[in-house]
Batch of 4 targets.
Target 1
Amino acid sequence: MKFLPADILNPMKVIRARVLGYCMGVKRAVEAAESLISNKNDESPAKYTLGPLIHNPSVLESLRERGMAVLKPADIPQIQCGSEVVIRAHGTTPRILEELEQKGATIIDATCPKVH
């Protein structure tokens, strides 16, 4: 990319939005995961998010520390029957949902309503 003198003399101005935070779909998915974790006890089934729930390392780490693992689609064959899996706001494919159902997973579909 070639920079013209005007680019240097008139640098881009960044304006921060008044309202910051998660979009509605991500907020809903995080709340679903938080609710699932809050009900966890020693006899609870394994809890997963299908892929990273959010693009925020500190939130992912907090969920991990409280017992929620990130499940890669390739690892679905290894989960136990009864495992609980939160589908992130971006959703997933029908094939992946079918694989989870065949494994006997409890699916918490937090797909954003605007994605459907």
Target 2
Amino acid sequence: PEDFIRIGNTYLLLGDGDAALEAYEAALEADPNDPAAHMNIAHLYRLGGKRKEAYTHYTFVIEHAPQSYQPYLGIGLLYLELDLNPEKARLVLLRAAELAPAVFDVLYPLAQACYAMGHIEEAGEVLKDALPLCHDASQEQNVLAFLAEINAQQQN
């Protein structure tokens, strides 16, 4: 399955989601219990707005690789982006943060969920933890702008 996953990742980098999905599905045919194949398929489904399909694959990964933060992150993003349910998103993203406390891609959406719930102080604390974990200047600018927005709200 690893070769199919690498091929799928290459197609994904080239912007061909359909070919990537075919490669990931071939990985599942080779090993129906491969968490990486399920994770990649879930990611594509989430990006395509296919909530139910994504959720099914994310929960498979949780059952077979419970110490992986990635399926919790994926489900949290489903709740945050597709369901517009920050309360559920926060709960799942907190679990992802327990498993991966130093991963920017977990902390930033957690801060977004907290903020959407009106937990402004918690959002600020999470963003302060996320700031040193930024991958690039663009992420750093986003975090700083978000922190400035939070600071402005706290002063009102």
Target 3
Amino acid sequence: MSAPPAGTSAELAAALARLRLERRAGALLSYREIAARAGWSHGIVGEYLGGRVPPPPDRLDLLLRLLGATPAERQALNAARDRLEDPQAAPVGAAIRQLPAGVGGFTGRRPALDELDRLLGAAGPSPAVVISAVSGMAGIGKTTLAVHWAHRIADRFPDGSLYVNLRGYDPGGREVAPADALRGFLEILGVAAARMPADEPALTALYRSTLADRRMVIVLDNAASSGQVRPLLPGAPGCLVVVTSRDQFTDLAAEGAHPVRLGRFTAGEAESLLSTRLGDQRVRAEPAAVADLVALCAGLPLALVVAAAHAAVRPDTPLSVLAGELRAAALDFLRTGDDGTDVRGVFSWSYRRLSAGAARLFRVLCGHPGPDIALPAVAGAGGIPFEEADDLLNELTTAHLVEERTPGRFAAHDLLRAYGKELWESTDPAADREADTRRAFDHHLHTAHAAALLINPHRDAMQMPLAAIAPGCTPEAVPDRAAALAWFAAELPTLRAMIDLAAATGGDATAWQLAWTLTDFLNQRSNWTVELQTQTVALAAAERLGHVVGRARATRYLGRANAMLQRPDAALPLLRRSLELYEGLSAPVGAARCHLNIAWVHDRQGAPESALHAYEVALGLFRTAGHRIGIAYALNGIGWLQSQLGRLAEALATCEEALVVQRELDDRFSEMCLVDTIGTIHHRLGDQARAAEHFRRAVAYFAETGNEFLEADILVRLGDTHEAAGDPAAARATWRLALELFDRLGHPAADQLRGRLEPVG
């Protein structure tokens, strides 16, 4: 093999996959065999070969040697790795590192840190699950302490760290469900979305089995209840869990939780914090004013941090003046249970110093439905130019009213968000708030619509036309398919929140349209569980609207998702109901797509004659409508079924007809599906060399585009070709590669393939 250019992590991973497939030094190595020989974790091998994390240079060289690369190939790929500038690249070691950055200049909390150290030390070198429940009032610094300590002891947990904000006190009442948190953790741990079960107990079981051989720090931040926490606790020894909450969670004692309760800062700790942020000289110069600030902030770290931030940006203003301003603020909101610890005055003090534009944007952002927001969406929701949004966000982050949690994405602390949302509801007229919400929806909807067409430019029109975009709102520019996939990945939590909010507040058209934009992305990522959730909302919205096409579409998407989740008994009634709706509308293209999905289900059920009939009906409907991409898909399906039934000459002729359409449309996805079918025909004709050539082309494409299901499916057939050519070692090696992919997806085909491998080794 000649080493291809590797301009991205995905291209490097594809080159490694080809090396692995063509390994010269012996049989193809499984992920576990590579991990065992290299002394790495199985999970990180998957990260390297899956293109999610580029191997560090020293590890890449060892990996290339294990894969049997020639010296020239090693030199070329090592050089390509050196040229990579991947913002997702992990450091050497590449353990999972999800902890947020620790606070610079952390101060105080010596008793709490000593207690946490004691708990960990008492557990010994190979502890059972250690649970530390850090509790205290709002703004007391629970998250800061938990993250600081987790960073301090991270080297004792070589498999890394997990972190989730459970949003237990979210002002919108949108606390994170345990099932959603579990899915997020499982995704980070390398479990494919298709493998994740729908119900919480099964998700918990999968999570615990995935963690069983790992040593990790897990921070469960801002929990609302022990019921939210219990499903997220590991089941085997070796992990440390830190839970933060405003509640003490005494009922977690049965799980062995150790309570660590935080109180307000002592005067010494508070003064130390101010000295760290303002400098010793300034603090020592005004001891009385410092004492006033500490007293007015009631020892609450959050209030002290905000007060210090304002003092820092006004270096020439005496602290006594600042203390007077703080004293004058109305402290009548967001009480923490103690008359002396009300933080609203501090927030209002910060808010009043904002420019009018920043104050307005702060209120709008706190009314935004998503957990965070990207800079282009800030401009869209605010109805302001991008550059102005950037300047105002800089003002808000400087004032510590908004934080940039990840590059380009912004959010407010829960308390600040509640404060800002209350201001939004009490300050801005209802008409303005409705306009704000509409701009937020329109920005995401119009961006999502354009991105969806980049992912699949041949998809049928929405048939529920978008309304004109709100004045002052500009959708985000998404340049290409890769950017579209990345945008959907980043915005998925917000889009799901928007779908639910729109459906709950009379925006049924918006809810349906947003769900429509997600379908190809979710299908590409094998995330059919989320598709079931979003399309269930979409179907209800379409029913309320009386929109028959919307009902037909959502019903078919629900049927397809159930089919892909291997639930034919649920899929077929939905697909047949959708077919009835389309036939009632005299809509041949919609009906034909239903027949395509029904044919796929019949084929997977082992009923080729029924599947062939459904494909032939679909073809007739597509021809009647002049729908070229549909014709291509139907012809490919017919050619595939003809080959399964032994009608090989007909199958080749059908595929040749399909190929003419494919070349006309320049649709790579359907072309590679056709290449797979043609490979199958050559395999059955006995021309194993031509069959293998076709299968390799299709495998390379689906590996490059991240469609692991089709990659695995075709690898099985490539293994069959090796077996028929008299090379059982190559066959088993290729099947093992397919088995790894099916296992990662949790697909039932894994068990069938495992049965084929067992008798021969």
Target 4
Amino acid sequence: SLGLNCALGPNEMRRFLEDVSNNTSAYTICYPNAGLPNTFGEYDETPESMAQHVGHWAHDGLL
């Protein structure tokens, strides 16, 4: 399998996930995180929004 790990939030990770998934026959995995903190030191991603992103990736055949 080939995978991507954190450092990027889900919006930034998708294009890299597409590149990996579309150029290999191996399983593709990902482990996104909440991205970088905002100016208040908090994270804008929620568990619910993360679940939606991952669900879309799976539906689109990227995982």
